[in-house]
Amino acid sequence: MTYYLNIIKTIWRLLPIALVILVVILFFQWKRERQKISDFKEIQSAQFQEIEKWKDQEGKSRARAEIAEINARNAKLVMNEELRQLLKKEVGNLRRNLISYSAVKSSTQGKFKAKGKDTMYVVNELKSLPAKQFGIHNPDLDFEGIYVPELDTLMANYKIIHNFDIYYYYKKPGKSPWNLFRRKRAVAEIKFHNHGSQADSLFTIVLERKKGLLKRLFNK
Fold first, then answer.
1. How far apart are CA 163 and CA 72, in angstroms?
2. How far is CA 87 from the centre of its chain?
3. Cβ distance 179 to 172 under 8 Å?
4. For 67-118, what is each residue's pLDDT tens digit?
5. How far apart are CA 194 and CA 64, in angstroms?
6. Least C-beta-crowded within 10 Å: which of 67, 112, 139, 142?
7. What is the number of other CB atoms lying within 10 angstroms of the CB of residue 158?
8. Per the confidence metrics, is the pTM higher than 0.90?
């Protein structure tokens, strides 16, 4: 009988410690899930597009999406300042645990703004001018144009849409099993779906983690 009483007393003494450990584990799990929800909400609000007017070697006026570039370990990324800063912040702040592979789909659109010269035509006699009207309606481009040959003029109204997926996860550099003791790096991949354009590509950001306490102390 004494033996069982001793076991019950031991369990009773250890019970508060076990409850404290359980509460700590549940708190960190709740905090991790809350961070995931915050990541999704902020990434879904990201939008990007910067358009400028340019001329090629033949002198024909054209328009293209010219978006800011980043260098991340010699990888050129096509995105503007807002999305770049967001990815640096959100992917860089991911916790040390390996999060589930996640995807966020988004679509952006914007207005075309370009610097140019205004041309004024003086017409002494009003007359009809032949013109050609045409349109392009693709998932990533909505274009309506009117071309007047006699005036060598193109009047256009169009909208460019960028569709992309964002994937982010942790990955150890190198090959297994040689990378067993390597630290995981946060990785973000942006897959553009504008087929037939310069944005139809896959770009990757690899963010190096901050040095640990010992490495910072010894500058290694």
1. 22
2. 6
3. yes
4. 323 333 333 334 455 555 655 555 544 433 333 333 333 334 444 444 555 5
5. 13
6. 139
7. 15
8. no
- The letter for the amino acid at 103 is A
The low-confidence residues of the chain, meaning pLDDT below 70, are 1, 3-4, 36-126, 140, 160-164, 192-217, 219-220
Q: At 27, which amino acid appears?
A: F
Domain count, the chain: 1
How far apart CA 106 and CA 156 sit, in angstroms, is 26
Q: Please report the pLDDT score of residue 176 as a whole number.
A: 81
Q: Which of 151, 91, 149, 90 is nearest to 120 (CA)?
A: 151
Task: Determine, yes or no, domain membership for 4.
Answer: no
pLDDT at 55: 39
User: Is residue 1 in some structural domain?
Assistant: no
Torsion on CA atoms 171, 176, 177, 182, rounded to nearest 10: -30
CA pair distance 29, 191, nearest whole angstrom: 30
Pairing between β-strand 69-72 and β-strand 75-78 as defined by DSSP bridges: antiparallel
Q: How many beta carbons lie within 10 A of that of residue 175, not counting itself? A: 7
Would 16 be classed as within a structural domain? Answer: no
Asked if 87 contacts 188 with a C-beta cutoff of 8 angstroms, the reply is yes
First to last CA, the chain: 61
How far apart are alpha carbons 190 and 88 in whole angstroms? 13
Distance CA 104, CA 164 (A): 9
pLDDT (0 to 100) of residue 31: 78
Domain range for 97 is: 45-218
Nearest Cα to Cα of residue 64 among 195, 160, 196: 160
